[in-house]
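During the reporting period the student researcher (J.K.) took over the structure-prediction task from the postdoctoral fellow and processed the backlog of single-chain submissions. One of the processed entries is reproduced below for the supervisory committee.
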Amino acid sequence: MIDKSIKDLSDEEIVQAIVEQGKVSLMEVLYDRYERKVFYKCLGITRDSEISKDYAHDIFIKIFTKLQQFKGTSNFSLWVHSITYNYCMDQIKKKKKLTFSELSNSHEPRDIGDIENENRELMELRHESLDACMAELSQSERMILVMRYQDNLSVTQIAETLEVGESAVKMRLKRSRDKLAQRLQEITSIS
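J.K. obtained the following structure tokens:
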């Protein structure tokens, strides 16, 4: 930690300073780095901002109480992602029911010309169609697609997070993609 400012420290160096040197004030740095990521990961799973805030709070408590268990065999961000994903899935399993609420769009459309408005409306319809099709997938199908395509995790990272083999991840991804594509095709052929 010599000659480096706090913002230049890697996550792993910060964890090491907290665990080995007792510099608990550095937890704030980790919190600042991961607060939004954890919240949005929870929001992607629950589709409810209030529940996501509660989950994120609980997840950070879990992360900070388990910092000494971080071994550094994978990067810290993947470790945080795994804790977040597993916590949310455990909560869903406990509740046995997950309610989805539509996220409100508080932005008023701006007058930017007819062509731009039509393009925006078309993109919104496509986004709504994709959201509707994603909502029809099972929780595990949605999560594996989100992990791969929204979070840009590799197959190896997903396998670590889910504690399954890479071939199982590849098969789940293929099945989930195929199911989503089929449902999107059905919707677009109806329109």
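The committee noted the following: The first helix runs from residue 11 to 21.
J.K. will present the remaining backlog at the next meeting.
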